[in-house]
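Reviewer comment 2.1 asked that we show a complete input and output for one of the modelled complexes. We chose the glutathione case, as it is the one discussed in the main text.
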Amino acid sequence: MSQLELLSDSRCFGGSQRRYRHQARELGCSMVFGVFLPPAALDGEVVPALYWLSGLTCTDENFSQKAGAQRRAAELGLALVMPDTSPRGAAVPDDPEGSWDFGHGAGFYVDAGAAPWASHYRMHSYVVEELPRCVEAALPLNGRRSISGHSMGGHGALVAALRHPGRYRAVSAFAPIASPSRCPWGQKALGHLLGPEDEGWQQWDATGLLAAGRLAWGSAEAGGAPLPILVDQGTADPFLDTQLHPQALAAAAAAAGQPLTLRLQEGYDHSYFCIASFIDDHLEHHAQALLG
Ligand SMILES: N[C@@H](CCC(=O)N[C@@H](CS)C(=O)NCC(=O)O)C(=O)O
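Response of the prediction step:
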């Protein structure tokens, strides 16, 4: 178990907004992540945690600084865990073209199988297994988890819930890359991380997983039914038609019997202004399952 090094701790809505650094075994580098602990966790209670996965170009700080999630999370008694978006450091290979849509800041939350990426780019196992193990051992968390995210992080959250039945009590996404195998961002990233397109890509594609009959199952303790998925998508998002494909996700969910609510938010774009506008609905969606 790696040690957590506390980098900062700021009082926020009666709770505590922190940054930690630790050595991530899955990624072979040191990683910084954010945690918000609600007041209840500072008063001796153990609380559930919502894991938030950010999008392309983000660090652990975009969500903590721009979404405004802490106020409602404090009231509900939810912790927020906010990892970075890729492995980092001079030893970690980056996009050979030096662009922002792959590599550092854009790890795509998969476990890479192809050289030279495979030894560091294991963000899926990091987010699903190593990070929860570390934070739940060190902080007042009760092991109840849910997952959400934005864009690349929305893809990561959906895939995590679909691939790990029983691990999460709720799942949601903002403007997810809902079918990476059919969009330029995803094709570039999966091509590097997994190799040429084949069956394997569909294991990392939320729409492909649903089409193969994989549902986002809840925990046996919580009744074991498929989790209702909440998706918000702005209609003025410049990436909607080329990169995101939420309708394909909704169609695959309907065909598979996976409950999914796709809310098209008129006039909203791809930014954190959209996330800030609807984050309270997502926090309540998660709290209902985590606290019930
Ligand atoms: N090149 C733009 C486009 C990438 C983009 O829109 N990233 C989204 C996620 S896919 C984001 O969250 N950007 C950071 C922010 O808005 O704080 C950027 O650098 O932000």
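The mean pLDDT is 96. We note this here for comparison with the apo prediction described in Section 3.2.
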